[in-house]
Amino acid sequence: MQNATITAVLGVDARPNQLEALAREAQTQGTHLIVLLLSETPAVPVYSMGVGELSTYSLPAGWQADVDAAREAVEKQRAEFSQYLTDQGASADVRAVCGDASALRNTVARAGLTCDAVLIGTDLREDKRLLEDIVHAALFESAAPVLLNTAQAKVALTPQSVFVAWKAGIPATRAIRAALPILRNAREVTVALFDPISISAYDGENPGTDVAAWLTHQGCNVAVQQYASGGADIGTAILKRAKETGADLIVMGAYDHSRLREMVFGGTTRSLIEQSAFPVLLSH
C-alpha cells in the first residue's frame, strides 16, 4: 500500500517489537503509521447512600488511584513506542488513549475516518469483548477497511496471492475497492464464489465474470473459481479453499447479514474475525 496511512490499534500488553515488520514495510512503501495504544479504565463505581433528598454519592477510595496508574502506564508505553519507531526510522504518530469502552470505540472510529486501513493488533485477542468492540467500531463507524492477523506485515500488505470471497453486494464491493492497491500488485487474485446461483436475476449466467472483468481492467491477474460448500459453514469453506490456493490474504465484505443475526446465530464474518490463521481484510 504505497504512501498509505495505516492506523495500528494495540492493547496494554503490546510491546514495541511487535511493530518491527510493520515499521520495515512502512519504510519500504512510504507508509505513515498512526499507533493507538488503548487502555480501558474500570467503570465508575458510584455508590448511593441515604434516601431521597438526603442521599449522597461517593466513589471508593482506590478507584481514582487505579485510573491514575493506568494512565501513567499507558503514557510510559507511548514513550517506548515513540522511541522505538523513531529508532526504526518510521514515519509514525503514537497516541495513548485511556478511557472507558465507549471512549476507546469512538477513538478508533474517528481514526478510521482519515486513514487507509485500520490494523488490529493480535494482542487484543486476549480480550474478546474489547476486540469485538474495536472491530465493530472500525467496520460500522469509519470508512476504512479492517486488517486482522497481520503479524507478518509484508505478507499482509504486499501479498502475492489474494483470495477474494465474492458475494454480490455493497460490503464485498467496498472490500475490493479498499483492497485495489493490494490486488493490482499481487501475482494472482482468486475471485471465489460459494454455491453461486447461475441465473441472470442474481450474478448473471456466469457468476463472477463481471467482477473479474472489472479487476482485470484494473491490471489484476484474476481467476474465477466457483465452489460448492457441500453443506459446510461458508467461513470454514473460505479458509479451506484459501489454504488450497496458497493465499497470503483473504479479502471479504463483512456482515452481509445483520450484525444481530450473526451475533446470535453465528456467521461467515464472525468466523473470519475469530480465526487467526489467515490475514484478512474486511470492509462493510
Automatic annotation (TrEMBL):
A Pfam family assignment: Usp
Residue ranges of every copy of the UspA domain listed in the record: 231-282
Family: Belongs to the universal stress protein A family.
Name of the protein in question: Universal stress protein
Organism this protein belongs to: Sulfitobacter faviae
Lineage, broadest ranks: Bacteria, Pseudomonadati, Pseudomonadota, Alphaproteobacteria, Rhodobacterales
